[in-house]
Design goal:
8-stranded antiparallel β-sheet; Rossmann fold; 6-stranded mixed β-sheet; binds guanosine-5'-diphosphate; 3 domains
Length: 400
């Protein structure tokens, strides 16, 4: 089974080191690369630093990322894909590229530092993104002499934080990403702990994959020779030649005559495939197609939860919103709740205004637009807020 993992936590608590360790211990690294990195590490008379090693991989990863925004892969019982970290700065970027979708989050907390600001913010974000499974890696156990007392203190801090949210079955694992304790291999130095290692905890995860409705998102249309081609992406479900589709918001209906790809034609396009379809009617960027029995719906209002990363917003403000390939004018109808983005707790009901850094539940009115609940089709359930051509915040659709 393929499982998407996101690794979050405060800066310097050991996320990159952990990713490096997972790749190393799972033997996902190519031989040559490893030797090269070890040589470099020796040259610098450093200890073998996994964080360092991950940077060396950056270029290789970047190439993959431009095609598919998800990052690196490693294998055990399941296949794991590590997706980008939704740090506050990267949050908008992730919202745009779709990297924020993950089945499970690994929250890395340094045992010497304990809970810090980003530990809280990341927890808030993963909760908002609907990621319910979380594993806490209490890292740098080597720095605290592998002491159970300190682990228990940090565990209590983290569980106090997580209690404000709605996570199920959280496991706490004492680890050292640097030394490799309790990642793939158990640890004799942590003999007071008899729970699973990190990989065992991951391998136990089961994710239900429901078959999803077809949503074909149009990026643009072209006239090629005598044919009208609408180029787009199958964001969810399966698209077949001869399918009868309806597109919204334009309300156009018709048959998929051909599915075109660079190499020729296809009879089926699957989730995440980018294809061109030959469709006799006029479509435009922002249109979303689906089957007649489960069509996408065009709406002029919806309820969303957003985090504001710059500027301020108040009731009645006009701005723009990007969702899928659509970019439309929207209005803040009503800010319903202002929420603490560190704890997820309600701060104020019906506030007039929210400021940079605030999270809020907002009722939007919009030009006709297709959105879906984030919990059902996340690809069409996340949006970015734009003001004066700047991305000022991002959010998810709670209800349509
Ligand atoms: P990130 O910012 O969360 O990605 O953190 P890094 O992975 O870059 O790690 C920050 C620093 O902590 C680096 O110097 C790492 O070598 C160090 N570090 C990471 N994990 C451990 C660990 O388990 N034990 C110790 N002693 N140091 C660690």
């Amino acid at each position: 089974m393929n499982i998407n993992v996101v690794i979050v936590g405060h800066v310097d608590h050991g996320k990159s080191t952990l990713i490096g360790r997972l790749l190393y211990d799972s033997e996902s690294i190519k031989e040559g690369k490893l030797a090269e990195i070890q040589k470099l590490a020796e040259e610098y008379k450093k200890r073998f630093e996994f964080a360092y090693f991950l940077d060396a991989f950056e270029d290789e990863l970047r190439e993959v990322r431009t095609i598919d925004t998800t990052g690196v892969m490693f294998k055990s019982k399941n296949h794991y894909m590590i997706t980008d970290v939704p740090g506050h700065k990267e949050f908008i970027k992730n919202m745009l590229t779709g990297a924020s979708y993950a089945d499970v989050a690994v929250l890395v907390v340094s045992c010497s530092q304990g809970v810090e600001e980003q530990t809280k913010r990341h927890t808030f974000l993963i909760n908002m993104l609907g990621i319910k499974k979380i594993i806490v890696g209490v890292n740098k156990m080597d720095e605290v002499g592998y002491k159970k007392e300190r682990f228990d203190e940090v565990k209590a801090q983290v569980s106090k934080l997580l209690d404000s949210f709605d996570f199920s079955n959280v496991s706490y694992i004492p680890i050292s990403a640097m030394q490799g304790d309790n990642i793939y291999k158990g640890s004799e130095k942590i003999n007071w702990y008899n729970g699973p290692t990190l990989i065992e905890a991951l391998d136990k995860i089961k994710v239900e994959r429901k078959e999803r409705l077809l949503r074909f998102v149009v990026q643009g249309t072209y006239q090629i020779n005598s044919e009208k081609v609408a180029v787009g992406k199958v964001e969810s479900g399966i698209l077949k030649k001869e399918d009868e589709l309806i597109f919204q918001p334009s309300g156009v209906r018709g048959k998929v005559e051909k599915i075109k790809v660079f190499e020729g034609e296809k009879s089926i396009a699957e989730e995440k495939d980018s294809v061109g379809i030959i469709f006799k009617k006029d479509l435009k960027r922002g249109d979303v197609g689906g089957l007649l029995n489960a069509p996408p719906l065009s709406t002029t209002e919806f309820l969303g939860e957003a985090v504001l990363l710059s500027d301020a917003l108040q009731n009645g403000d006009s701005l723009q919103l990007k969702c899928g390939t659509a970019k439309v004018d929207v209005k803040i109808d009503q800010i319903k709740e202002k929420i603490d983005s560190e704890t997820g707790k309600l701060i104020e009901k019906n506030p007039k205004k929210i400021n940079k850094g605030d999270a809020a539940i907002i009722h939007f009115s919009t030009q006709p637009l297709v959105v879906e609940k984030f919990s059902e089709i996340p690809e069409l359930g996340r949006f970015v807020l734009v003001k004066n051509e700047r991305n000022i915040g991002a959010g998810v659709v709670l209800d349509v």
